[in-house]
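Quick one, probably user error.
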């Protein structure tokens, strides 16, 4: 079943629009995360400095892939859960914010294996994205994958996970209710934010270490009784400059920027980097039941720069490390990038060729880039890997459990959308609207 459409706001006087809820939620999480991870505040400050400087340097070109207001407000978060029931609850909560599952990512075969499969919850309507594009990359622990978990450990892990409650009944009731007025909306955002705060209950050290021997991510998911925001990511217009400025401030960054290399041509897809996970004080319980304070490194500060969404053809070229055109018109003409289109007012349209590529190359049509709103498996795994405390263990002689986008859809009870379908529909709708306007104009 396709996600239900958000209720109409023009007929419900007191209802808070989902885009407003999303903006409140993103701001609330950002404030909370800044309190818990002070270096994140530094990251946001440097991001804002770089964005202002890029605007001053590049003018209108800086907003080619989104207005400064959108980019400044933009965030994506990352969380991790342990069971299908927890994943379904997450889907229910995010749907109330107008965020639906898009894309399927399997990180179990990364260079450093991570026993999770993931999707991203985000708005799917272009207008909703422009109002507030908050996304949450959400990973589910694959407890039945024998390459990571033997039968005994799987049973212990699933028992532990089944005994915890991540989300309060009140939070889920408000999420299912929808149509929230200001009072309920405030309470909903408050509860949703609290659900992703770092936990205060003592961590069972022996159990945590058992899981960490398999994977640091497994321990972060299944070794504690709560979940939390793992990172919260602002968007920057020049990630190379940000990387340098963060180092100049004494912040230890991971060793490189993940994603496509910088080129002189249009930015494509997604580039990401982060400061390294910080040692944060946590309370532990030892095997003799004594409680003490130590530290864990599980949360870090990621930042991203977004480019043009690539078509399936474009992704094939990118994944093969191939060369692609260095101009937006050629990306569009060769069907390598996704674009919306407008007619060039300076070029007479009565002799416009029917072939799209010819019309683009001849200047009759102006391609406008569609921003890549999703994630790259290799980059996500690279960010995770750069912030792990160990390589973990994986037995490749064992059989892994099968996962697919269809299984993820079944688990969470909602259709996981294909990003390409969304980009293609946006591009096609633009062409159809332009042709309608053209036809009307020719008879006026």
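Nope, works fine. Designed sequence:
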């Amino acid at each position: 079943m396709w996600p239900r459409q958000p209720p109409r706001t023009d007929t419900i006087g007191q209802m808070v629009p989902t885009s407003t809820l999303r903006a409140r939620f993103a701001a609330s999480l950002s404030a909370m995360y800044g309190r818990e991870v002070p270096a994140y505040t530094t990251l946001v400050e440097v991001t804002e400095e770089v964005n202002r400087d890029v605007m001053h340097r590049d003018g209108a070109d800086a907003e080619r892939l989104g207005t400064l207001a959108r980019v400044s407000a933009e965030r994506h978060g990352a969380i991790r859960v342990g069971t299908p029931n927890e994943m379904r609850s997450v889907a229910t909560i995010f749907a109330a914010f107008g965020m639906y599952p898009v894309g399927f990512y399997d990180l179990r075969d990364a260079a450093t294996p991570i026993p999770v499969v993931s999707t991203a919850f985000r708005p799917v309507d272009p207008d909703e994205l422009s109002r507030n594009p908050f996304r949450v990359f959400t990973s589910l622990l694959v407890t039945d994958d024998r390459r990571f978990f033997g039968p005994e450990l799987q049973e212990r892990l699933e028992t532990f996970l089944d005994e915890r409650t991540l989300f309060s009944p009140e939070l889920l009731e408000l999420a299912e209710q929808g149509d929230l007025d200001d009072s309920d909306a405030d309470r909903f955002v408050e509860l949703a934010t609290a659900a992703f705060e770092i936990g205060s209950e003592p961590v069972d050290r022996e159990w945590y270490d058992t899981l960490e021997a398999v994977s640091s991510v497994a321990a972060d998911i299944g070794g504690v009784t709560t979940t939390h925001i793992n990172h919260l990511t602002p968007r920057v217009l020049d990630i190379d400059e940000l990387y340098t400025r963060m180092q100049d401030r004494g912040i230890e960054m991971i060793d490189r920027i993940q994603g496509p290399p910088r080129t002189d041509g249009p930015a494509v897809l997604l580039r990401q980097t982060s400061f390294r996970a910080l040692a944060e004080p946590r309370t532990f319980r030892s095997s003799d039941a004594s409680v003490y304070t130590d530290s864990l490194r599980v949360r870090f500060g990621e930042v991203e720069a977004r480019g043009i969404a690539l078509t399936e053809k474009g992704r094939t070229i990118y994944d093969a490390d191939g060369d692609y055109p260095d101009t937006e018109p050629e990306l569009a003409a060769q069907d390598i990038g996704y674009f919306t289109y407008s007619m060039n007012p300076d070029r007479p349209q009565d002799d416009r060729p029917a072939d799209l590529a010819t019309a683009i190359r001849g200047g009759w049509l102006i391609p406008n880039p569609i921003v890549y709103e999703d994630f790259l498996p290799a980059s996500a795994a690279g960010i995770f890997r750069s912030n792990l405390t160990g390589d973990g263990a994986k037995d490749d002689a064992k059989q892994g459990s099968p996962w697919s986008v269809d299984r993820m859809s079944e688990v969470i009870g909602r259709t996981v959308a294909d990003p390409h379908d969304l980009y293609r529909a946006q591009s096609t709708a633009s062409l159809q609207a332009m042709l309608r306007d053209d036809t009307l104009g020719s008879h006026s």
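The chain has two domains: 18-309+373-413, 311-369+418-444.
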